[in-house]
Amino acid sequence: MKIAVLPGDGIGPEIVAQAVKLLEVLRADGAKIEMETAPIGGAGYDAAGDPLPEATLKLAREADTVLLGAVGGPQYDTLDRPLRPERGLLRIRKELNLFANLRPALLYPELAGASSLKPEVVSGLDLMIVRELTGDVYFGQPRGIEVRNGERVGFNTMLYSESEVRRVAHVAFGIAMKRGRKLCSVEKANVLECSELWKEVMIEVSKDYPEVALSHMYVDNAAMQLIRAPKQFDTIVTGNIFGDILSDAASMLSGSIGMLPSASLDEHNKGMYEPIHGSAPDIAGKNLANPLATILSVAMMYRYTFADLATADRIENAVKKVIAQGLRTGDIWTEGTQKVSCSAMGDAVVKAL
Ligand code: NAD
Q1: Which of 185, 257, 304, 308 has the maximum number of C-beta atoms within 10 A of its C-beta?
Q2: How far is CA 205 from CA 101, 239, 335, in A?
Q3: Active site residue 248
Q4: CATH classification (class only), 1-99+267-353
Q5: Over the stretch 89-119, which tens digit does the pLDDT of each residue have?
Q6: CB of 259 closer than 6 angstroms to any ligand 1 atom
Q7: pTM higher than 0.85, yes or no?
Q8: Nearest CA to ligand 1 atom 40
């Protein structure tokens, strides 16, 4: 398995180094993995005048999977828009056709105090949101602002084709199969035709997955239920705009942004794996960042692209162990726990593994 390693900017290189350390241990243990590093984002601009250099895209296409740190930094904010680091990220997602975005919201019981919700509501939370990433009202045509009857109107088109819904449905059912076999499809079928079709296709696809219990929920209720009783959910599948909003809300259930991994998958489960946070310029280069979101992204890589659930569990258990040992980077530190650096956290996970 070839992994394209794209550290990016800011804390990207520091956190990715911890994940690479872990991958090297797995390789020494017999895992057949190969890694090649390339610049992206600001680092891509510095190296080749392009936030997604051609050689980086070529490597990402050829590799079986991509591990990404984060991109961006204040020194790049004045560049022309197409040259900005974030454009590199959007382009690679599009070029690789990564239409299914997976965002787990997981809370270790020891970190329950870091969430803004009551500990008993979120402790032990383990939820996965599958968001469709390349369709919906964000991409539908026509769109625009124009003058009608003497006043300006703004309009967008909420649009899903059956095939777009079907492919993300298959990803979501596949994921639910590997988790608790409960899938909740979130839409607004009571008022939107687009959602009506979404729901019909979900029900059709569910016939291929008789072991998975499919339920349906309107998005407004889902927003409320996520805050009221998030542990009722196992896997949620939803469209681009609903998923955008719900996944951000869900990420706050679990306390620190430094703990949350993500995956974006194509049709063949080739994925790009990255922490959900950015390049954190305020702490970059200081060995302070939390590397656990990146390490947990490697666990997701094993689970979804390599289909090696045992190793995925092993990595996740190693993270649980260091949390249970009381080791904390600054973002998750509380009185009575031991504050450690980014590299010390990486070493501890390797040792626990
Ligand atoms: P950010 O996620 O980089 O940082 C927000 C806050 O969280 C900061 O205080 C930061 O120190 C902290 N933080 C983030 N990750 C952490 C970690 N692993 N450990 C400890 N603390 C952590 O968001 P921002 O400050 O809004 O953006 C900074 C730059 O990152 C911008 O250039 C932005 O465009 C970019 N960005 C990139 C991505 C990405 O690469 N996927 C995502 C979001 C933002």
Answers
A1: 185
A2: 19, 16, 49
A3: yes
A4: alpha beta
A5: 988 988 999 999 999 988 888 888 778 889 8
A6: no
A7: yes
A8: 70
